[in-house]
Amino acid sequence: MSEKISSPQDLEGKHQQDGTVTPMSRVTTVTSTTDLFEDGTVDPVYQAKARVLNAAIQEIGMGKYQLLGGLILSPVVNEFHFNGPFLSLALNIGLFVGAVFWGLGCDIWGRRWSFNITLFLAGVFGLAAGGSPDFVTLASLLAVLGLGVGGNLPVDSAVFLDFVPGSHQYLLTILSIWWSVGQLVASFIAWPLIANFSCPQGSTTCTRGENMGWRYLLFTLGGMTIILWAIRLFVFPLYESPRFLVGIGRDAEAVEVVHRIAAYNGRTSNLSLLDLQAAAIAVGAEKSEGEKKLLSRSSVFTMDHIKGLFATPKLAWSTSLLIFLWGIIGLASTLYNSFLPFLLASRGAQFGDSSYYTTYRNQVILGVIGVPGAFLAGWAVEQPYVGRKGTLALSAGLTGVFLFASTTARSSNALLGWNCGYAFCSNIMYGVLYALSPEVFPAKDRGTGNGLTATATRVFGIIAPVIALYANLETAVPVYVSGALIIGAGFLALLLPYEPRGKASI
């Protein structure tokens, strides 16, 4: 940015002659803001400063600054002749490690570099995986790709929520539209590539030259990711989270970031370093010149952030229930979704239409169906008497119902129809869960909380392929198990103690 930002001394304002800080009107305004957490849930100094930042970001408003394994399974198995679930197992191990490492890490060394590095890893190793000469190499490269993808998912929601005004937090739910768009784009690319450049299904011999479709797909998706990473790094720079900066005692830099965002949006902000200092003094804390570190004391992993998520009985119950919800939904969805192309093909074989063309055409249709679900979710979570919890419970229940209903299909079109219902409702379910989780984690521990919930999903994501190794996927048993688990998760969602609708996350 070319605009001049005031120095910390300029931003600090003036002190009274007796050395006390003159309280600003912003502090009075912030104390009346409705927070998600009651007093005493998080560090009082951090809470006071977070309220100041919330008011400043709300003042800026919304602006331009804020706003794969399953697809290649069948042709890869055909070429390398291995048990299909092993590929999903390798990818999920990478996703698990990425969720733990980057989820906890972004609360220690910041959001900015965590986001950029994980995106870079996904692109580079996606490209490399396309050149795999054998199954072991492919599985290893996909595991490292998972390290990037698994880390990016918990980081990006923390990044978005740290910058968005409280009045627009619902947009995090709509942000899940990019999952559907991503699935649609990937499926649309996979459809002609795998249908036209793959060995015939069931062929006894399959050479690399005859089976380049899945490699072309990985090259394409990896290249797209690298391009997006470069645009994010060089064209639309990502600033460090002001909440993270306040948490590590860098108040002046947090103020500077707020002013930069305001300028980027074509607006101005009245936030000053004095406001943050006055907020701290208002709760009885002595002035520390911005040196007190509330979020992270060092660049090493500690238990502090995990303890912060269990600081009170209510917060502990909320954190535990969210971890459990992510775990059981992760088990159910991974067991079903990881093998959806395979399942559609095997069911289609009974109906005489098991070609790659039909399988990946159906994947494109499912991708299209998921897009409107994100918009419906964004509307529903803001409705009185429904909110986040009600939308999550209803969508989870309907997702389970459609899974059960899919077992009644007696034709390929009927199976596709039930899966369309599943895709629509599950996109709502995941969109709400994806947004609700970081909203009810304090920002100073948000990355860790996202990491714990993502870890629960990945642990059960690892278990799902193991189950598949010993289960008959051509029966309806995995579908019944998945449906029952997701319906149960819908009932558990109603027990969550916090409803973020109409309240600002801190």
From TrEMBL:
Q: Which GO terms describe its molecular function?
A: transmembrane transporter activity
A cellular-component GO term for this protein: membrane
Residues of the Major facilitator superfamily (MFS) profile domain: 24-501
Task: Give start-end ranges for the coiled-coil region(s).
Answer: none
Q: Cross-referenced Pfam families, in alphabetical order?
A: Sugar_tr
Q: What is its main location?
A: membrane
What CDD domains does the annotation carry?
MFS_SV2_like
Alphabetically list the UniProt keywords. Answer: Membrane, Transmembrane, Transmembrane helix, Transport
Family assignment from sequence similarity: Belongs to the major facilitator superfamily.
Which segment of the chain is annotated as a signal peptide?
none
Where is the protein found, in the record's own terms? Membrane
Topology in the lipid bilayer is annotated as: Multi-pass membrane protein
Per its record, how is this protein called by name?
Answer: Major facilitator superfamily (MFS) profile domain-containing protein
Q: Which PANTHER family match?
A: SYNAPTIC VESICLE GLYCOPROTEIN 2, TRANSPORTER, PUTATIVE (AFU_ORTHOLOGUE AFUA_7G01740)-RELATED
* Stretches the record annotates as Disordered: 1-24
- Report the transmembrane regions from the record: 86-106, 113-132, 170-194, 214-235, 315-340, 360-380, 392-409, 415-436, 448-471, 477-498
